[in-house]
Design a protein that fits this description.
The structure is a homodimer. By secondary structure, chain A is α/β, with parallel strands linked by helices. Chain A contains eight helices and twelve strands. Chain B binds a DNA duplex (30 and 30 nucleotides) through helix 6 and helix 8.
DNA sequence: TAATTATTATATATTATAAATGTGAATTAT
DNA sequence: ATAATTCACATTTATAATATATAATAATTA
């Protein structure tokens, strides 16, 4: 996580310094803002560099909620709200506005670092691996496209989701139950043979490489390249 | 995640019902306890079924911390503490005792479900990646594959399950009854000689190492590497 | 107590049955 | 009109129960 930019917004200098020290120790680059207005200003300038914002709720001029709202109008950047004791009742409200996490003061360094890392893992991690390759099968998660040996193939929604699930779980045997619960909505109670139909179509579309989808008789399916 | 058992410990019935409803909607099986003593009782009985505990801190009789401590003496099961507003200062203290996560009341369903799923993914997920080795016999539980001296062998469902059962109980003599009850469905009342057939096939497929499946005359079988 | 035989348990090969999956087409939903 | 699902039938494969062979133990007898 080296060099990832994090913006800390808090009016108390002591608090900013505290957080900065902990996160800097983990190798993050820290930007600071002492109030909401400055925060928006900095965010505007460094939009594409900043990967996470730690945002205090109680601040003079522009409070945390207002900053949150403004940033959310144009960005999905992860935001952690710093709340003082007793402000928890706002949690639900905040989640609807797109808060990713709360940390309430006073907090332990452990928690701070843990939550920051968890969120960055989630968000940065995904973006880095947008395109994956499995021995000629290339899946572009951003574009939702798949190609086999350089040739694009057309997959329907379910076919794509099912294939992606199999690929994400390369070498792991997946039961029909698991597949249904992960690829279909949790409230789907249809025929588990539906999976078979999709598998068949995917195999066909994958051509020669369709054989990598192994049948685990009595269990389900598994993607394995051999 | 279907059918995973979660134990909810809270003295307020309303709270238990609330949590139960959310988690049940996601396909989890819920167990409830209204105080610490009952929680320990249920945990004792269902130890191997329960995969996660949601534990309220403030409870009559035995509070959450005490329950936590007792359970931690014998189990590493993931525990999420439910804290009321203003109890956050205990967080660090709790992490040292082995708390996996905190959720402070009031919480949003989103948070509850998200944290529960995140933890289960972490913990249950790991187990699946277990690869065990028995002197050249390698069993990959996630992939449901077995190899002997580096060469993959193909096992049918029953063969795999039976071999796994024998390996899991290395050096323990297993009666045919026990084997039937564990490898076959509980409602199977067929000929116990069926086991022999499968043992024979497994031995054959294991080649030289088939001899590690010892016959316990008058009893059953045992896996022992010598 | 050794040799012989009877008895029982397990090993192996075979086979009929049952179960799971493949497949293409029909139906239903979006 | 396309995708998703279900259906019906074909095909494959696993399984449990056969039958028979072999090995281990117990019983019998010399």
């Amino acid at each position: 996580m080296n060099g990832v930019n994090i913006l800390i917004v808090d009016d108390e200098e002591r608090m900013r310094k505290l957080i900065k020290d902990f996160l800097a120790a983990k190798g993050y680059s820290i930007l600071e803002a002492e109030d909401g207005e400055k925060a928006l200003e900095i965010f505007e300038r460094k939009k594409d560099k900043i990967k996470l914002i730690l945002l205090d709720v109680m601040m003079p001029k522009l409070d945390g909620w207002s900053v949150l709202r403004q940033i959310r109008q144009e960005s999905k950047i992860p935001i952690i709200m710093l709340t003082a004791r007793g402000e928890e009742q706002d949690e639900l409200f905040g989640f609807e506005l797109g808060v990713d996490e709360y940390i309430s003061k006073p907090f332990s360094p452990k928690i701070l670092v843990a939550r920051v890392e968890a969120i960055l893992k989630r968000t940065c991690g995904d973006k880095q691996n947008e395109v994956k390759e499995y021995n000629g099968i290339i899946i572009d998660e951003a574009g939702r496209t798949v190609s086999v040996d350089g040739k694009a193939i057309e997959l329907s929604l379910r076919e794509y989701e099912l294939l992606k699930y199999l690929l994400d779980n390369e070498n792991i045997a997946l039961s029909r139950d698991k597949i249904l619960n992960n690829v279909w909505n949790y409230d789907y109670y249809g025929d588990s043979r539906t999976i078979d139909s999709h598998i068949k179509k995917i195999r066909h579309k994958l051509g020669k490489k369709g054989k990598y989808i192994k049948t685990m008789r009595g269990v389900g399916y598994k993607f394995e390249m051999k």
